[in-house]
Each structure stands twice: as C-alpha cells, then as structure tokens.
Amino acid sequence: MSKLNKKNKKRTMATIAAQKMLLGESRDNKIEEEELLTPIQMVIKNFIRDRIAVIGIVVVAVIFLCCVILPYFFPIDRYYQDVTQANVAPGFGLLKVPKALGENGLHLSVGSTFSVGVDKNGNVYEWGTFPTDKLKKIPKDMGKLVQASAGLDHIVALNDKGEVFTWGNDRMGLSSIPMELRMGEKVKQIYAGYQVSFALTEDGRLYNWGNSYLLEPRIPKEVQGKIKKFAVNTNLAMVLDEDGQIVPLTQKVSAFTQIPSDIQGKVVDIALTDESMAAVLEDGTIRVWGNNVKGSMDIPQNDNKAVSITGGRYHYTAVNEDGSVLVWGDNTFSQNNVPSIPEKIVKVSAGYYGTYAIGESGKVYSWGLKGYLMGTDGFGRDVFRRLLVGGRMTMTVGAISVIISTVIGIVIGGISGYKGGKVDNLLMRFSEIVSSIPFLPFAIILSAILGNSISELQRIILIMFILGFLSWPGIARLVRGSVLAEREQEFVTAAKALGVKEMGIVFRHIIPNIITVIIVNATLSFATCMLTESSLSFIGFGVQEPNATWGNMLTGSQNSKVIQEYWWRWVFPSLTLGICTISINCVGDGLRDAIDPKSKER
C-alpha cells in the first residue's frame, strides 16, 4: 500500500508540475504577445474596448460623410426663397390622394402645400399640410361639386348649377364673392391663386375678388363677354378670347406681353408659370415666350399633337391627342418625373410644384413635390438640405480653426519647452495675454466694425482665423509640458551627440513621441470650435445668410411662436449639433483613456 501511495503521489506531483509549466508557458506567451504590440496598436486596442468612444466615432463619421456626400445628391440654391412653402411641417403627404378619390377622380387642384379634389359623385376632399385651420372647415350644402381650385391658403369650388363657394383665408376680401355671381350668373371656370380668386361665367365674363393689388387686372370692354379661358400667375392674368386671341389684362409691358404675332387667332389653350407663358395652337404645336428660368422655355421634342396645357410654378404639363403627357421645365422636386401610366390621360392639373393626371377610368396619378423630410423654414427653404450644407460649413470652420490653433500651439509649445529660460518665460507670458482675450466680445466688436465692408467669404475666413489664433494657448501649454519631460530622455541626448539641430530634435524626434496627446487635445478643441462658431452665428455675428450653418439655422428659434408651432425648425439643427459635439467629446475621452489607461483611476 505504501508503494502504491508513493506512486500516486508522484503522479499527482508530476501532473501539478505539468500544469504549472503549461500555465507558465501560456503566461509567457501572453507577455510575449503584448510585447509584440506597438504603442499605436495598444492605443487602438484600448480604444476599441471603449464602446462609447467607438459609437462616438461612428456617429461623427456618419454625420461627416452625410454632410460631404449628400449635398451632391440634394443640391441647394443658396438664394432660393419661396414664401408659399414657408413653415411646412415634415412629411410626404402633399400629393397623397385619398383612396376614395384616387379611383374616381373628376377634378383635382394643387395648392401651395395642400390639394383639393372632387370625385364623380360631387364629393370634395382635402389633403396635405394646411397653412390655416380654416381650410378644414368645408362649407355644407354646396350641392354636387364639379370643380375645386386650391390657392395659397384658400379654396374655391363650383357645383353643377354654376354656383361658386369659397373657404379658408377670409382676409383681403377673399370671402367676398362678387354680387353678379351671387345673383345667378353661371360659372364654368374658377381659379384660386395667390391671395386672389377668379371666376369665368358661361357668357364669357371674368370676375375677380381678393387682393388684386399684385395683379391689377384690367379687362378691356371689347374683351369682356368674349373670354373663352383665362390663366393667372402671381404677377398678372392673361385671357384667351373666342377668336383665338391672347389678351393681357395689364397695361404694363413685360416679357409676358410680348406675344408672338404669328400665333394670334390660332390659339386653343393657354397656361402661365411665374416666368413664362405657353400656348397650344390649332395644329397641335406649342409656343412659349417670356423668361427662360429653370428651363420653362425648353420644349422637348413632341411627335404628337398637343390639345391642352397647364402650368405650375416653373414647369408645364401638356396632354397630347393620343392621351400621353409631355412635361418640361423645373425638375427640382421631380415635377418632370412622370410615373408609368397604363391608360390615356383625359385631364391634367398642374400647380405650384405638383401635378395630377386623371385617366379614362377615373384613376388619379400624381408626381412632383411630395413633401419635405424635415420641413421648411420661414423662407420656404428645405431644412434637411440646409442642415447638410450647414453641417459642412460648421465642420469646415471648426476643422480649419483647430488646424490653425494646433500648428501654432505645437510650434510655440515645442520651442518654449525645449529652449526654456527667457524664451520659455516670454512665450508663456504671451500665451497668457492671448488666452485673456474673450473671444465672443472680440468677434462681435470686430464684426460690428467691419460690417458690410467685407464679403461673406472674407467673413468666413476671418472667423476661422480668429478662432484659430485665439484658441492655441491651451495646446501650447500642453505641448510645452510634454516636451519638458521628453527632452531629458536618452534619444534626445543621442540626437544631440549626432549633431542634429535643435529644431530637428524638437519637430522630428520629440513631437512625434507626443503626437497622441496632441491628437486628443485637437479632437476636444474641434467640438469646442464648432460650438463657438454656432454660438457666434446664432447671435448674428458669424456666418451670415444665405450661407447655412447649424448656428444661424437656430437663429429663428428665439421666437416663441417658432418654438411652439414650428418645432422642426429648431429641433433638427439643435439635435444634430448636440449629437455631433457630444460624439466628438466621447471620441476625445476615449483616445485619452486609450493613451493613458491610468487616467480612469484618477
């Protein structure tokens, strides 16, 4: 038994020794593996372990790429303004036709940010974003409707008895239908426009009511009673008489009134955009004159015979004899992207930035402006597109400012830390003087003094340089402290022994060894510069309109009405700015912890 016990004991001791050897080897392997990692690899490995920092760098990268790449797919005109599209809520329901109307349409009309339609049973429908709640109060007992027209913020409707009804904005006389129409004159065509309404009776008489100061329509006596059709835009009205003659209802000479003489007497239909006029002739050809803005006069080749035409804000839509559709002009909101239509079109209605077409079966097709992802601001500008361009501007200003401050800080901090003595004392006192200058008051005073004497580009460059030149003392002190510690190392002594010049020692040997510390500080300074630029633009002394930044996009949010009713104008810019700066700070904190893991313990 004693021999067996001794054998078992020996086996046990051998097993324990083997385990110890294995553990020792694995531990040695781990140590060797760690020793094989370079400092940069160790920093990356530690950084990846920090989930918050990784999420932060992903968020910043996504925002940066969106601001750089997406503006090429969503271009923006800096000087674009359209009051008809002001303060539109986010959504894509502007052309979403109700199902009951979509299969049984009779007449549809596109308004500024809403639409109205009538089905074959005479029922009226409304959809889209309504500028006023009064549009939702549809009058009762209107009978069987046959037409409806949507304007800026009001609607005009016509029933089968030729009676006219209106609702929505009741200011500027829009609710005051002329007495002649109330006395029983039957109407055949109606129009709700920009703060004005028109109605054409069956006996060829045209009436208007509302704000006529913009149009000032003057109907010649010899034309009144012979009008076949009329067309209206925001500036004037034109009529087509029974003889095929086009007559302008104004005495002002403009590009619209320069009607080609060879078409008079041959016109069968007319349409207006804000910049040009079009006419369909008896032979089915189309003629356009006026101002060729956004391609409204660039008629595409048409092998068919046109029979009717209608115009939107800057685009035309014509119906051919074979039921096909021809579109041209502005395509900013896909007004020219006609969907696949499997049947003949019998009626088309274009207005503002959208178009409706009704097929033989009564099915409704729509294309054009469906809505805005993040709504519009007080000038009708797309918040999403401005957010992308504004982010690019804010990030550019912040990045260049950080580059300027980092370069200056490295040069002054490196020289100060390496030289020491009087040079160090002089440079550090100079940095204290610069750091004592308050940035915002200084920038405001400078902006007020310069005023409009500099261009917007010069103002942007000035802001970047001011931010850079006033924010370098912090990084200079950090670099100085790091250089003071590194200059006593052996590699510096070796470089001196080899005869390397002092500036070479500083910028070729010492600075590369403290570059990780500089990167951390620059990352944190980037977020600070972005916030500073946004603050300056917010109070009106930074980047000015029409250039967009996240700061000046928030300027309008100082209004209590904007905060309460138009939340999208300040929520999206503030969220983007906040998320971006927080993410950059998380990245900076992650880099700092990755470089110095002991910093978490402090």
Describe this structure in words.
By secondary structure, the chain is α+β, with helices and mostly antiparallel strands. Helix content is 41%, strand content 19%. The chain has helices spanning 2-36, 39-49, 51-73, 99-102, 179-182, 383-419, 421-435, 439-450, 456-470, 473-486, 490-497, 502-510, 515-538, 550-553, 560-565, 568-595, and strands at 105-110, 114-119, 124-128, 145-150, 154-159, 164-168, 187-192, 196-201, 206-210, 227-232, 237-241, 246-248, 267-272, 276-281, 286-290, 306-311, 315-320, 325-329, 345-351, 354-359, 364-368. A three-stranded antiparallel sheet has the order 1-2-3. The longest helix is centred in the middle third of the chain and has 37 residues, at 383-419. The chain is elongated and about 105 Å long.
Poorly predicted runs: 30-34
Largest sheet, strands/sense/barrel: 3 strands, antiparallel
Helix % is 40-55%
Spatial strand sequence of the major β-sheet: 1-2-3
If you compute it from the alpha carbons, what radius of gyration comes out, rounded to the nearest whole angstrom? Answer: 36 Å
Number of helices: 16
Gross morphology: elongated
Q: What is the end-to-end distance?
A: 61 Å
As a percent range, the share of strand residues is 15-25%
Strand tally is 21
Query: Which structural category fits the helices and strands?
Result: alpha+beta
Mean pLDDT: 87
Short description:
With 602 residues, this protein is α+β, with helices and mostly antiparallel strands.
Topology:
Layout: H1 2-36, H2 39-49, H3 51-73, H4 99-102, E1 105-110, E2 114-119, E3 124-128, E4 145-150, E5 154-159, E6 164-168, H5 179-182, E7 187-192, E8 196-201, E9 206-210, E10 227-232, E11 237-241, E12 246-248, E13 267-272, E14 276-281, E15 286-290, E16 306-311, E17 315-320, E18 325-329, E19 345-351, E20 354-359, E21 364-368, H6 383-419, H7 421-435, H8 439-450, H9 456-470, H10 473-486, H11 490-497, H12 502-510, H13 515-538, H14 550-553, H15 560-565, H16 568-595
Antiparallel strand pairs: 1-2, 2-3, 4-5, 5-6, 7-8, 8-9, 10-11, 11-12, 13-14, 14-15, 16-17, 17-18, 19-20, 20-21
Helix pairs in contact: 2-16, 3-6, 3-16, 6-7, 6-9, 6-10, 6-12, 6-13, 6-16, 7-10, 11-12, 13-16
